[in-house]
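Budget justification, computational time. The allocation requested in the original proposal was used primarily to generate structure tokens for proteins on the priority list. As evidence of use, we reproduce two of the resulting records. The first is shown immediately below.
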Amino acid sequence: MSGGAGLKATVVWWDLAGTGRTIESLREFLREEAVDRFARVEGLRLKFWISDPAGDRWGAVLLWESAEAAAAPLPARAAELIGRPPAQRTLFDVEATVEGVHTLPALAGHGLALESPEPLESTAP
């Protein structure tokens, strides 16, 4: 396939310095609205959000089933919360995909923002 056919990937990064936003506040945003919203985006095969605490950066990697799907407008809520557009947004051709051997029954529902906090120890006798 050529001429823009096939899978596409988008990588998006924000520098959070000076925005008043933290990785933890954006995890809350994922839990409360973003994950559910992106689960309904047509043509999106996979989206995973990424963070770099040492560099104070937040981002996402999106895998699209076509160039047309990748070009569709997306919710701009993250940019609205962060207060500026991403520092980087790059579209890539996908050369190959593979799924390795794993024990997870499904990919959805995993990640730091979605993991349950450790239960508190009971103080009851």
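The second record produced under the same allocation is shown here.
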Amino acid sequence: MRRTPAWAVAAACVMAAALLYVGAVAHLVDLVQHGLYPYGWAPTWLNLYWTSLAVLDPLAAVLLLGGRRRGADLACAIMVTDVAANWYAVYGIQHSGLLAEPGLQRLTIFALYAVVVTPFLRKHLSA
């Protein structure tokens, strides 16, 4: 993978950053409209986690766009924990399922993308 073209690395970083910004906007809107606890049905810790993504998502995106490994690592960590939190919310709290939740489907696909792409990106990003 050392021969990965620079444009492919840049494209992967830009795509991940764009998706992180989409998430950040969603979390910012929830924060502005509903405060720190936007989901009355969710426990406090889950509300605070999702609210923290209003800061963490754009931070990871900025680091990624700056060509930093920390951005890829943070994006991967965010996506793994976010998908786990959302799966818990959907299955454990709302008693729903993946097929009934398009948002969870998209989030899961992005998390898989982050987990698969991050090891390859790290080789091309600066510390």
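A brief technical remark on that second record: The radius of gyration is 15 Å.
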